[in-house]
Amino acid sequence: MDIKRRVEIAVLVKYYGAILTEKQREIINMYVDNNLSLKEVSDELNITRQAVKDALDNAIETLENTENKLHFIARDDKIKKLLENKLSNQIDMSTRLEILSILEGE
């Protein structure tokens, strides 16, 4: 799995990770965040490599389906772009600071 895909999954987990089972979150954390191989995860959890792959695939599918229905990430990206666009325009300092505060609060 390349770094871009790992980042995409990490963002999905940030938004929707609470809907996964504890085991799915643990496997994604080990595989994506800790960069362990499927074999390393399976050894650590004492389950088969196939069980890890199935859990990972199911978790990712659940996260992607949830984003496809709710669009929270897409909405937040759109808001962020709008705010960044406002920053590039002429605005007063208090508005600029307020926008920067919102963008940094992510």
Any overview of this molecule?
The protein is an all-alpha fold and 106 residues long. The chain has 2 domains: 3-70, Arc Repressor Mutant, subunit A; 74-104, no CATH class. 80% of the residues lie in helices and 0% in strands. The chain contains 6 helices and no strands. The radius of gyration is 18 Å and the shape is elongated.
Notable characteristics:
single chain; 106 residues; mainly alpha; Arc Repressor Mutant, subunit A; 2 domains; 6 helices; 0% strand
When the domains are counted, the total is: 2
Order of secondary-structure elements: HHHHHH
Shape: elongated
Derived from helix and strand composition plus strand pairing, the structural class reads mainly alpha
Average of the residue pLDDT scores: 92
Looking at CATH, which topology of the largest domain would you report?
Answer: Arc Repressor Mutant, subunit A
**pLDDT < 50 stretches:** none
Question: Short summary of the structure?
Answer:
With 106 residues, the protein is an all-alpha fold. Helix content is 80%, strand content 0%.
Please give the structural blueprint.
Layout: H1 3-16, H2 22-33, H3 38-45, H4 49-70, H5 72-88, H6 93-104
